[in-house]
Amino acid sequence: MSANQFTHLEINVSNIKHNLRYFRSFLSEKTKMLVLVKAYGYGHGIGDFSRILENNGIDYLAVAFPNEGIAIRQAGVQLPVIVLSAGMEDYPLLIRYRLEPSLPCLETFRRFQSEAAALGEHGYPVHIKLDTGMHRLGFEKTELEALAKELPLARSVRIASVFSHFAASGDPSQDDFTKTQIARFQALSSFLASYLDYMPLRHLLNSPGIERFAKEAQYDMVRLGIGLYGMSYVDRSLLRPTAYLKTPILQVKTVRQGETIGYARAGKITVPAAKIATLAIGYADGVNRHLSAGKACFSVNGHRAPTIGNICMDMCMIDVSGIDVKPGDMVTVFGDDPTIFELADILGTIPYEILTTVAQRVSRVYVF
User: Fold this and answer.
1) What pTM was computed for the model?
2) Residue 197 sits in the same domain as residue 328
3) Please, where are the H alpha helices in the chain?
4) Which amino acids are annotated catalytic?
5) What is the pLDDT of residues 58-103, one digit of tens each?
């Protein structure tokens, strides 16, 4: 079966390379790049997608949970992988698959170095998370001082990197706070490094941070997330969409005035006749039910067609009156038209949610 016959998320690898070049243009040649592939690679896939990134010179990957990192290892990817949200009970599993934990507090540090020592590890790479103002996870100054005193005895681990997370680096109105975070990171990371006889990597910049603060805070590595997937906080026209959600038309029928479409009879035909196309995609695939009833339009054969009636679990309907369509024609739910930004605006959310809610049952097709 060819890619144009079933519901799929088409991943445009050329556009991924374009977006990588854009973000690398802000960096010095020696600055490393980490790409976040958590949440199934922001919907783009995990194993195959991570191999593509490895083949394009990425230095590090990061995931949220151990199972995501395990999938990367099972795909044969050798890049170092940071696990950002591992529970302490998962630490032996991380070591088994050579995954590297983010450690945000003294309890996690003690537990991991103990587990690593019990397994005979020496110098296992770990990553120290600093809280510079996000107040979600991370060491603050007092706890960092306690960590520094324990480091000489913790020989089972080695600090591979020290990092922190911006709260609002894409918002110019919050730049004073972002600069405060940069200053705090500089002070805290330097304090920790003063207790080591080696220098860990330091990384602070996220996607908007790369675009807006690369001159003053790129340090040794940056973390690219939503920017890779087409989101710019400076100029969206500089980036290209990387994911195209497409689905075939299952059936086309003419429905007369007074008839209704779908569950709860929510779609009503108010013209003498309407041409309705049923699509092989629904809310279980990631098409949010709040896009029902004409709130969104999808693209088919060069035309935009509004949704009609309620979006179902596995199907939805669009009004294709006046458009030349037939079963098997492909409809774009998002991509170039409409964009993920348009759908996010309709739903009152962010592009991240649009990408990450595409179900794993939707096939990922990589186009090179």
Assistant:
1) 0.93
2) no
3) 13-24, 38-42, 47-55, 66-74, 91-96, 106-118, 141-150, 175-193, 207-217, 340-347, 351-356
4) 38, 263
5) 999 999 999 999 999 999 999 999 999 999 999 999 999 999 999 9
